[in-house]
Amino acid sequence: MTKELSRRNSPLVLRMKRYLPFVIVVGVALATFGSGAMLYRAKHPQLQAIPEDKAVSANSGSESMHIRGNPDAPVTLEEFGDFQCPPCGSFAAFGEELLKEYDSRLRLIFRSFPLSVHEHAREASLAAEAAGLQGRFWEMHDVLYREQAVWSKAPNTRELFESYAGTIGLNVDQFKKDMDGEQAKARVDSDYARGESLGIKLTPTIYINGQPVDPKDKNPDGVRAAINAVLAGKPQA
Amino acid sequence: MTVSRFRTILYIVVAIVAVAGLADATYLSVQALTGETLSCGGSPDCFRVLGSSYAKVGGVPVALLGAIAYFCVFAFATFAAFGYARARTFLIPTIAAMFLATLWFLYVQAFLLHAYCRYCLFSAALTFLIAGLVIALPPERNRSVP
């Protein structure tokens, strides 16, 4: 007992006790900083600006892309989205707010970028493109995002897409053929290839007049600030 | 179990809970800094909460301030567990400030944004737990300062 007490109170043990909290606190600080830095590096995408030859100008033919808003608007917001990604659904609703807010000064372009982690995303993109072949891309885009929670988990996704096609007034037989057709596939593949060439890995990824919106600004205030900067004629960061 | 030992155990528990809060806040800080507020944990409400103007103070993400606060709580609780009296005097005001900030952010989510970020709710739960543990601490008695 006395031996144990004297061991506990030995100078070495007391010194260790005194410094141990410092060691623990510094260790946790380093571990937190290190893991935070690693996470930051892993998540921070290296996006490229859209090169001149791939840029969407005001005169670009609208038949090859899906435009909402004034086709001649001075600001183009190009979104690479995945129909099964919940944040893209949030952004779709925000996009409508932006269109109301900026009216004729803004146009939205949607590009399909179905992520492989989302089981039904590509099929949803094909459904949207098939609807687009009947001139109802945006109607299908809106329904897909509005009903995302339903079809994302449903076993009969295809049937649901067909019912949505009926709801928005499409010729359902034609829609079924188009969903399996080469044209819809080619459009989805083309958008995806464009996204890949720009280094996109996550959705939604947003470009304003060809410049990527910095991920840290991918929020309502940040997107508005980027649009306002373009309207004010300021160069984008 | 002596009162002193009970206090030490509570400080250790506070430190452990603070580490959980630190991990949560660090994750949210990285999300805020990389702009992945749109996709944190697949929760669409994160976009509304972390992307809102309430999520930054003077351009600094609130999550980052939260991470600093949790780290302070962890450090103070660790030192307090080792008998550093001054750490105890810093611990209570820090937790009180975090508690009040948590109440404010819950109000913002519930009544101003009408959206809840699950990571923020987890952080709120941890802050309440830490506050509860500190309240449960037995009254201070004179102790020697190392």
Descriptive overview:
The complex is a heterodimer of chains A (237) and B (146). By secondary structure, chain A is an alpha+beta fold. Chain A folds into 2 domains: 2-43; 52-231, 3-Layer(aba) Sandwich (Glutaredoxin), CATH 3.40.30.10. Chain A has 10 helices and 5 strands; from the N terminus they run ααββαβααααααββα. Chain A has helices spanning 2-8, 11-43, 86-102, 121-132, 137-146, 148-151, 157-167, 172-180, 182-197, 220-231; strands spanning 66-69, 75-81, 106-112, 205-208, 211-212. A 5-stranded mixed beta sheet of chain A has the order 1-3-2-4-5, with helices on both faces. The longest helix of chain A has 33 residues, at 11-43. By secondary structure, chain B is an all-alpha fold. Chain B has one domain: de novo design (two linked rop proteins) (Up-down Bundle). Chain B is 72% helix and 3% strand. In chain B, helix 1 runs antiparallel to helix 5 (118-135) and helix 3 runs antiparallel to helix 4. The longest helix of chain B is centred in the N-terminal third of the chain and has 32 residues, at 3-34. In chain B, 47% of the residues are buried. The interface between A and B is large, with 34 and 37 residues.
Q: Largest interface, counted with CB-CB under 8 A? A: A-B, 34 and 37 residues
- Work out the number of β strands of chain B: 2
Physical arrangement of strands within the biggest beta sheet of chain A: 1-3-2-4-5
Overall residue-averaged pLDDT value of chain A: 86
Low-confidence stretches of chain A: 58-63
Largest sheet of chain B: 2 strands, antiparallel
Number of DSSP helical runs of chain A: 10
**Structural category of chain B:** mainly alpha
Structural class of chain A: alpha+beta
**Biggest beta sheet summary of chain A:** 5 strands, mixed
The CATH H-level superfamily of the largest domain in chain A is Glutaredoxin
Shape of chain A: elongated
Q: How do the SSEs of chain B run, as a string of H and E? A: HHEEHHH
Classify the oligomer.
heterodimer
- The top-level CATH class of chain B is Mainly Alpha
The N- to C-terminal Cα distance of chain B equals 22 Å
